[in-house]
Amino acid sequence: MKNNVIIGAGVTGLTLAERLAAKDENVLIIEKRSTIGGNCYDYFDEDNNYIQLYGPHIFHTDDEEVWNYVNKFSEFNNYIHKVYCHVDGKLINIPFNLNSLYKAFDNLKADKLKEILINEIGINNKVPILKLLNHKNDFIKELAKFIYEKIFLYYTMKQWGKKPEEIDQSVTDRVPVFVSMDDRYFKCRWQGIPKNGFTKMFEKMIDRPNIKIILSTDYKDIIKNLKYDKIYYTGPLDYFFDYEYGKIKYRRIWLDFEKLNTNSYQENSVINYPNDFKFTRITEYNKFLFINNKTTVISREYSSWDKGFEAYPVQDEENKEIVSKYLNKAKNYDNLVLIGRLAECKYYDIDQAIKRALEEVI
After folding, report:
1. pTM (two decimals)
2. What is the pLDDT along the chain (362 residues), one digit of tens a residue?
3. φ, ψ (nearest 5 deg) of residue 264
4. Which CATH architecture group holds 3-36+206-246+314-360?
């Protein structure tokens, strides 16, 4: 029977563990944190308020295989994620869409802009904001300037410390402008939150006799004493190689939680604040599970270079060169698999992380 070691109990690591164990292989998971689920870890406080400790995470996918897989371990509610943006005292739908026009402008102007956008770009199409700024139509260019300055510019600067045009295009393309009345943040066929939370779903995934887990432990403290056939590493890529080629730059996030004596703090689960405040967004977690309590918990989210947890690898040439060196060195290891968001330095949504693990263990 094969023995596998998995470093990291995040989404990728737990999915790997479940699939390897299903093949009657032994699995040992080593996790530095005291919790499982990585940044998807969640829990309920003493007043039954729902809390996601590392900020909002919503499951969404168009992949039927992934959807069927997660439903083996949890039922999902019918939560549909929508996001609003606080601009000049108004709440505007984002990604910016045709509904947003009527929140930002009077009906006459909104009608005119809607007609122009449909004629010039096409209904149900999407376009990156930086491309929209260079559109040939003067009305669209004026609208694009409004969206850029009021929604993208300062939010991006708070989150990344750079203007949108100074960061990798793949980052800004993740939140385009939609010529659509569909104001869902995710357009996926399936989306929602596990009815008992992500952590309970993860616990069920690894509830197998041939899966062992060690928490609150740095794998480097014990790995030399272990015998294994293969190691799956899901942690920070540079840490595995002792920073030989330098540290990979990450944008970090820290959260300021507050419990309030009210059953509802804001109109929506997530509201972004691009302009007037140092924080980037406020999340009210009870709204994910439709909980109506006498109290509620919110978090204000801040971006940082040195405080909080590593969230997003910086997509610049210097980082890409460092990552490439580490990935090339990893090819010298016969029994090593680098996998997951941190180990591969890629943006994986929850469903993509699961899919990546499912494809690795066939």
Report:
1. 0.93
2. 899 999 999 999 999 999 999 999 999 999 999 999 999 999 999 999 999 999 999 999 999 999 999 999 999 999 999 999 999 999 999 999 999 999 999 999 999 999 999 999 999 999 998 888 889 999 999 999 999 999 888 888 888 887 877 777 766 666 689 999 999 999 999 999 999 999 999 999 999 999 999 999 999 999 999 999 999 999 999 999 999 999 999 889 999 999 999 999 999 999 999 988 999 999 999 999 999 999 999 999 999 988 999 888 888 889 999 999 999 999 999 999 999 999 999 889 999 999 999 999 98
3. -155, 125
4. 3-Layer(aba) Sandwich (3.40)
The residue among 361, 293, 356, 255 whose CA lies nearest residue 21 is: 361
Q: Rounded to an integer, what distance in angstroms lies between the CA atom of residue 139 and that of residue 44? A: 48
Rounded Cα gap, residues 347 and 47, in angstroms: 34
User: Within the chain, which residue ranges are assigned CATH 3.40.50.720?
Assistant: 3-36+206-246+314-360
